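Supplementary Methods, section 5.1.

A reviewer requested that the exact input to the structure prediction be made available. We therefore reproduce it here, unchanged from the version used in the analyses.
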Amino acid sequence: MARAIAVTDVAEAGGTSYPAPFRAAVAGRTFRRLGDAFGLTQFGVNLVRLAPGAASALRHAHSAEDEFVLVTEGTPTLITHDGEQALAPGMVAGFPAGTGDAHHLVNRTEADVVFLVVGTKAHERDVVTYPDDDLRVEPSPGGRRFVKADGSPW
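The structure derived from this sequence is encoded token-by-token as follows.
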């Protein structure tokens, strides 16, 4: 049954599955998994909060998952292969799968940043590359696994 809920009805969570050397970059990032609250399976919808100094993720590119971001509060910096761009509430950015354009948001301000991110769920075939780090995510029999850029395990 479809129903509407308040965003605050969805628990805010934090943490990361990144290997230990990379976790500090996203310290201060929390999220609410809004799509999961409705059982959505084809795409994810998350409301993300970045404390000052936090990043949304390591700069990354997806082979099989599109991503879309809508800034609702604060002024994050978007970093892509093309450089940096200051974003503001009401601005949107999209990242098609397979382009290799690695991206992430960083909060370089003294106030929290909040944004909505929507992305396809293609984990079973998506490879995520991190051009600034010795890291890659790839499908594996148990789900997904982190490996070094050369394919050796973390």
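The two ends are 42 Å apart (CA to CA). These observations are discussed further in the main text.
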